Amino acid sequence: MKRTYAKYLLGHERTGIARVGQSKRELVFLRRLAANQKKGGVSLLGDPVFSSKIAALEIEMMALEVTVQHVVASEANGRGPGPEALMLKIKGTEVQQALTELMVEAIGPQAAAFDPAYLEGEREHSLAGDDDAAPLAAYYFNFRKKSIYGGSNEIQKNIIAQMILGL
């Protein structure tokens, strides 16, 4: 019985780790950031390579959102989270990491700036000259851990294989 409770709680935790709403907000931020950055006199949103990366990420996020809705519907029908919760954890963390990678790519070397004043709440005097750049290195490095907590993505893949394939 304890194992059933643990699986139920972990399934909900993993569903929450997907953070679709946060990823959607971060995507809006990424688009604004890319619109303000120029490459060859054109904004990054006009660069076909960069814009295709954003488009691919948007597709992943749409699939993630649909899967969250499926898990919520299953829960509403009295079924607990199944292997979908594990997939949400894996894809959700991959999307979050990809978002931070594109943010750093968009802002370029300014992302490396360390601005203690910004991190302490001051928003007017960023060392990098761009308040958007100040937290990006910290976001990037902080989001590396997301694929580990809640059970590493590699372990989630093994559990999915056991649940679905019976391995």
Under CATH, the topology can be stated as: Butyryl-CoA Dehydrogenase, subunit A, domain 3
Distance between the amino and carboxyl termini: 23 Å
CATH C-level class is Mainly Alpha
Unreliable spans are none
Tally of DSSP β-strands: 2
**Assigned CATH superfamily:** Butyryl-CoA Dehydrogenase, subunit A, domain 3
Mean pLDDT: 81
Task: Assign a percent range to the helix content.
Answer: 55-70%
* DSSP helical segment count: 7
Domain count: the total is 1
Strand content: under 5%
Radius of gyration: 19 Å
SSE sequence, one letter per element: HHEEHHHHH
Biggest beta sheet attributes: 2 strands, antiparallel
Biggest sheet: strand arrangement: 1-2
> How would you classify the helix and strand content by structural class?
mainly alpha
Shape: elongated
Second-tier CATH architecture: Up-down Bundle
Helix and strand layout, with pairings?
Layout: H1 2-17, H2 20-36, E1 38-39, E2 42-43, H3 48-76, H4 83-107, H5 116-119, H6 136-142, H7 153-165
Antiparallel strand pairs: 1-2
Helix pairs in contact: 1-4, 2-3, 2-4, 3-4, 4-6, 4-7
Give a structural overview.
- It is built from 7 helices and 2 strands, in the order ααββααααα.
- It is an all-alpha fold and 167 residues long.
- The protein has one domain: Butyryl-CoA Dehydrogenase, subunit A, domain 3 (Up-down Bundle), CATH 1.20.140.10.
- A two-stranded antiparallel sheet has the order 1-2.
- The radius of gyration is 19 Å and the shape is elongated.
